[in-house]
Structure formats: C-alpha cells, structure tokens
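This section describes the prediction task in plain terms. A model, or a person checking by hand, is given the sequence of a single protein chain and must write out its three-dimensional structure as a string of tokens. No templates, partner chains or ligands are provided. The sample shown here is typical of the held-out split.
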Amino acid sequence: MSDKPGLAWPAPDQGPIPPKEYQSREREDERRTRKPLMLWDRVKFLLLLGVVWAFMFLNTVQEAQIMPLGEAARTTVRTGVWVIALAVLEATRQLHYLIAEHWAAYYGAWNRFFGLFNRRAGKMNDWSRYRLSRVVKVLFYLFLLDLLIAAFLDFPVATALLQAPRLLFQAMPLVLQFALAGFFLIFQFGALFWFLSRGGTETYFPDDIKTRFTDVWGQDSVLAKIKENLLFLEDPEAIEQRGGYVPGGILLWGPPGTGKTLMAEAVAGETGKPYIFVDPGAFINMFIGVGVLKVKSLFRKARKLALRYGGVIMFFDEADSLGSRGALAQGGPGGGFRSNPAPWDNARACNGMSYLDSRTQQMLFQSEQAGEGEPRRTLRDRVVMGGMMGGGGMGTLNALLTELSGLKKPRGFFNRIVRRALGMRPKPPPKYRILVMMATNLPEALDEAMLRPGRIDRIYKVGYPSKAGRIRTYEGYLDKVPHELTAEEVDRLATITPYATGASIKDLVNEALINAIRDGREVITWRDIVKAKHLKAVGPPEDVEYIERERHAVAVHEACHAVAAYRVRHHLTIDIATIEKSSTYLGMVASIPPEDQFTRWRSEYEADIMVSLASLAGERMFFSGDNSSGVSGDLESATVVATFMEGYWGMGSTVTSHASTRFFGIPGSGGGKPGEDDREQELLKDRTLGARIEEKLAELLDRTEALLVENRREVLAVAHALETNKTVTGEDVAAVIEGTEGPLIDGRPYHTDEFLEAAETYHRRVVAAHEAHGKVSVPLPDLPRVELVGAVRRNQKALDESRASDPQPTDGDAGDGPRPSTGA
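The expected answer:
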C-alpha cells in the first residue's frame, strides 16, 4: 500500500492509479429527468393507508363476529372507499414520478406546465398569496375532519362537519379538566416568576429628591458635561432638528466615594423627572430567566413614566455586578484585546501605543499577559480575560443590551392587533426620553457591547478631587458644623489629604466633631482635625506599652525614616510619624504629595529607596552594627522599586526591558529554560538583573549612611519627640529637625548642647541595656527650659502689641502681664 492517500497499487509491475476526478453534483434545474425517489419515500403512504384499511377490517370483524371474512372484507371496502380512493391517488402519483424519472420528454412537459402556473402565481402579491394559501389549508383540514367524523360516527359526509359543535359540547367537561390542569400549572410558575421578578428597584417621583448640583462639590468638570446632557434631555429638539440624537447613556467611573451616586441624584433633583434607582443585586437570582423578566419589567415601567412625565432617569449603581459575557465576547479565545481602547485602559507606552498598528498592539498585549514578570496587570487582564460572569448572568446582560438599543415595538393592543387586523399600519412608538446612568469603580468588568455608542454614549471619569475641589468640599461640610478653622488651615488640610474623596472628607469632619464633643466642646479646632485624620489614616492604636529599650529602638527606627524623608524626598512631605503600635506595624512615617503630580523621575525613586533603607542604615549606625527584623518590609519595598528601575523603567545601567527578555527566555534574564549552557550563564552573570539591583541598593545604602551621620543630632531629636508624644505631625517633625516652633511642638530646645548631651547619654544607656537585655538605668531626659522662655516671650510680645494699640491703659494693666524670665 502507498503512504499517499488516494493512490492504489494494484500490481507490482504497474504504477499507482490516480483517483477519479471529483464531479460536482448536478443542479436540480439542469436535470433532464426527475430525481429518483428512495424505496421508503415511494411506499410509505401506501403502507400507511394499508394499515388504516387493516384496522377498519379488524374493527368490522370484531363488531360482527359471525360474519364471514369475505363478507367483512366487502363491507370494509364499502365503508372504507375513501381509503381505497386515497391509495389509488397515491399509486397514480408514484406512477407519475416513476415515469418522470425515466422519460425526459414527459418530465419536460410537466415542468413547462407547472412553470406556466408558477409564473402566473408569481405575479400575485406575496402577502395575498400567503393569505390565500392559509385559507386553502384551513379548508383542507376541515375536509379531513369531516371525513373522520363521517367515517367513525356513521354520519353523512355532507353533514358530518355540522356535528362538530355538538361533539365538542359533549366533550367539554373533559376538555375543561385538561384546560384547568394546564392553567393551574402555568399559573403556579407564572406567579412564582412574577413574585421573584419584583423588587430590586426604587422609584422616586419629582420633588422627592432634594439634591441639587450645588450639593455636589469638587467635581466641576464632570458636572459641566452632565449639565450638557440635561439640556438635551429637556430640549431634545435642539439636536434632533439638526439631524442628531439625544445621548441616552452616561457611565460614571472612578474610585469609591467620589460622588457618582450623588451626581445621579442631583440630576434627578435638577430635572424634576422620575428617578429609578436599580439595586446592585437586583439581577442576582436563583432561577434562570428571572433576571430577564426583571429587565423587561424595569424598562416597561421606565417607558410608562417617560410618557407621563416627559422623561425618566434610570440609575444603575455598581454596574459591574451585571457581569461580562467572557473572553469570547471581548475579542476571541486569545482574549481581552479591545479594538477600541476604553478610557480606563492603561497606556503601556508613550501615547498609549497609538503609533503602532493594531496587530502589533495586540501582539504586545498578549505577550504581556503570557509573561510572568510584567510590572502590572490590570484587573480587566486578570478577570475579564478569564470569562468572568457576574451575578446577572449572560441572559440578563443580553436582555439589558437589547433594551438599551433594541427595536421599539408599537404600543397598545388596539394599535398592534386591531389596526393590523383591519389592514391598517400600526402607529410608530413614541420617543421615550430615558436617560440611563451607570456608576462603577470597576469599569474593566463591563462588557464592551454595553459601552458602544447608542447604548452608553458618554463615559466620564469621576476621579479624586483636585486641591481646589478638596478645599470647596471641606468648606461645604465645615459650614454645616461649628468650627474655628481659618482659610489657611482649610488650605493646609486640603494639601495634606491628597486622595480625599467627598465621602472621606465628610467622615473626617464628622470624626473631628465627635472628638470635640468628647472633650466637652461644641466647636471644632485644628487639633480635632489632626486627631481625626490620624485615626482615619492609621486606625486606633493598641493599648500596649513598649519596654524602654524597645521603645527607643522603634523611635530611632522611625526617626531615621523621618530625617531621610525630610532631607532627600522633596516630592513628598511627611504627614505623620508615630510609634504607637497597631495590628500591622510598630511604628510608621506616612508621607503625602504636596501637590498634584502625574509623572515620576529617577531621582524621586532613588529618594524613596533611601528613605526605605534609612531604617537599616540607622539601626546599624546607632546599635553598633546590629539591626532588627523590622527592616524586612523596608528592604522589600526598596528592592521592588530598584527592580522596576533596573528592569522596566529605563532608570538603571541598561535600557533592556526585563519583561521582554524574560518572556522570550533570553539567558541571563531569569527566564531561560533549565539546562542552558552554563558558560553562557557565567558570561552574563555579572550583568544579570539581580546583580544590578544589588549594586543599586548598595550605592544608595552608602549615601543613606552618610546622610544619617551628618544628621545624627536630628535623628536623636525626632526620636525623643516620638518617645515623648508617641504621635507627631509632619509640621512638628520639620520643626524639630529645623529647630523652629511647630503647631504643637516647639523644636528649638532640641538644638541646644544640653539636650544633645542628655540624648547621647540616654542613647548609650539604651544600647548597653539592649546588648545585656536589661533595663535602662536612666529615665528619658526632659527638654531644657527653652520652650517655657519661648512661650513667655510670645505672651510678652502680644501684651506689648496690645499696649501699643492703647496708649493710656486702664488701672491694673501695668504689671498684670507676664514678665520674661532671665534664668532659662
């Protein structure tokens, strides 16, 4: 046998015989004779009529048991003449087919006859031909019914059909029993699904909502766009008369608490239209199909309200709960690549890779998904590509997509049924003014079909408010409570809360009010705000106390972070420093950006690494080369940043992207296969990513050690402030380092020789106790009297200014003011 398919070797002395050439199947209109029928198709109706006649014969024999078989056969022939007639007709038909299968002239004559008939019938309107054929079919079925009644009940054929109403009336009890059984079965399921499809939505009618646009602060740019949509909703002719259409869908996406739901309520309050709030879990059901019923019912209600009030606003909160149809819907089995990038898609290169063609973009996208060392995967890449299905299910999502942009059928029974039965065209449906608003903080989970124009026409990001927006939001909430904050303090508060949202700002003001009430006051002060911010930022501290040597070690650890951050990290400012133990840390130095910044630089990342390494360098410097395990988290963060700098961000000694080399398995990148050439690995060993990271960290550690040596006094000063106050604000940390007066702490006493000597002595005793695991033999040193002198001088200055404004003081003024002390 040959190994090539289709070739045969009949004999050793002959070559292979090629297969027959494929012949295309003959078309029906090209045949000269009729296509032959199979045997079963030729005899099936004859067999059926034979079985019917045999059944009638057996029935006749059974009714007259003494009748001979010949007489019974003759009787059956007389009563079943219609069966014989049908058998003759079927035999004639099959004979006609048989002749047409073998005689081309006969077949052609009949084709010409039926072709003439078809050409004449083709001139008739399709709708009229359909109605005429339906009448003929009804008459044929009535004729068959007449024959059956006449055959089985011995009625004349001419009048048998007239007995049908009487027979139906006699069978009515049985028919009603089956009808009632079916009705109750359908009613049970219908009632169950109707009950399950209720709920999940709340309807608010005009004037039920008091929220206005003036109640939404910090999102002026988004509000301006939404107001534009409302103009078209109130006056749709302004755009429709010019050939456009009213945008019917808005998606608000952004972090939680930024005011998305509040904006939707403000839209309903401003327009005076009904507002339908859809619960996020409204479409999560036990039974398949209930979600579809809910969607249909929801939009049916919306259409009624839109006709009555001239418009309606439908708001879907947490729209990502509707789910996605999975990877196949997002771009095929390869998964997840959007042909039209969404506004929230992260740009992986300059200009979002817009300078590349779509196939190259998709290749880079898929290679990033396959690699194990990519710096970041978006949530859409991790979840949507896997075919995530939300609680709503595919059927619910499909129903929602259909309702958002499906064909609107005519309304009303009379309009749809009666007018059509009378041959009148139904009136077109009205234009429903429905504004669909959706809000989500997970836009990657939304199906791409939902976001296309025509369904969701406009997509707005509701991000973190800018500093001006935060100031306006703080002013709005502070105006509702009694407070003593000045405009400068409100500005400072907005600066130190860079990622505050409307919800977090409202909560912060409320927490400050609770602090004031707890202290027996009715007015909020700056101290209440700072205390509330600390509570919200780091949570309540645990009710534990450090032993002296551990307290000092934690304070030195955090002081090194604080001093390094203050000296080298200028893109962030210290927000708060604390040594109060929490469930996840012993101490913390938190920093915030002083201004809105959208790019990061190599020098900034190096400063971040130095701040992280300051704990290791400081503990080794202050504790004779020893260090604690508390530096593990700092080393991890420093290593991660250094890895990105060296391998991904082009901020190291090479410009190669580690994500690409690892994906392609280039030796020396960490992505090679086991068993590769050891010599090649040895040649690349000195320049591997790990060696470059270690080199970068060692260089920055040396710079950090030199920085701390130069600022030893400042480290001890900040450590003392932390041990004394436990929690210190960023401004007070700066005051301690610079030796100035802070809002809550006077930093000038920390820069005296007396304090430095006391702090060094205390530190040596702590180191000795640390090495011996004993107790510290001296207490924490007190500050010099410089703070008291500063307070007296400030009071004296205020008194002098008061006297200068009143040249003739009243009795008792001279001598009542405080006197500066000369013996500090």
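For orientation: The domain at 467-536 is CATH 1.10.8.60 (Helicase, Ruva Protein; domain 3).
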